[in-house]
Amino acid sequence: MSGRVENLDSDGAVIQVALGNKPTEAQRVQSAIEAHHAEMAKRLSILANSMAKGASPESHSQLAKDFSSYLRSDILPHAQAEETSVYLRAQKVGLSEVVETMLFEHRYLRAKIDEFETLSMSEQAALSLVISEVFSIHAQKENLFILPQVLSSVTDGEAAEVLSEIQHEFAESKRAPAASTIDLRPLPPKARHDVVFSKIQSLEIGSSITVVNDHNPKPLFYQIDALWPEGYSCSIAKVDDRTFTMEITKLG
Ligand SMILES: [Fe+2]
Ligand SMILES: [Fe+2]
Fold it and tell me: Does pTM top 0.70 for this prediction?
């Protein structure tokens, strides 16, 4: 296959890049992330469809356990990894509104995972199909509307960094799904609250994280309270004029 892609240099000028038969780094990265999306979507779909076919109570219970633990061990860490890597890059290339939608879907998936574990067998079977479909469509949107734009905004050499960033964040998130401290100061202001929302939803009941910010995080507190009334307790401390901390604890 031959063709041409357009890359933007640091001044925003378009650079034409000729492609030969050998895949570019950007294509390799796109394929690797697409393959991971496909693998996750397939696993969810197999488990959801097995539940929907009406398994015996024993089989259903094992399938539900596998579904729930796969969501927690892979799907949530993947979502969390994207939020601190590729989504930040996407926001920088003018995709803030698309990222907003994707973050909304991440929140939806996190909420549904918590709900899944409280449901009856038939409700779990129905919800697992919804979760599986939502994830599959969500991943396709990332394949089509986020990755190509992000990868065409970096040089071919930098494309490898996009993949290693997301893989590193994924491994970190799998190892420690709820870091005890999040420093928001290096993050773009628009992304900060969503990063916190993603972390606090992964907390175990009774456990806490501390957020560090460069201004009083009261607006964050009000937003958490509006989204999850009585879901979390928050305590704000001023370290100095430009450093504030907020400890957030998940309530039962
Ligand atoms: Fe995502
Ligand atoms: Fe994804």
Answer: no
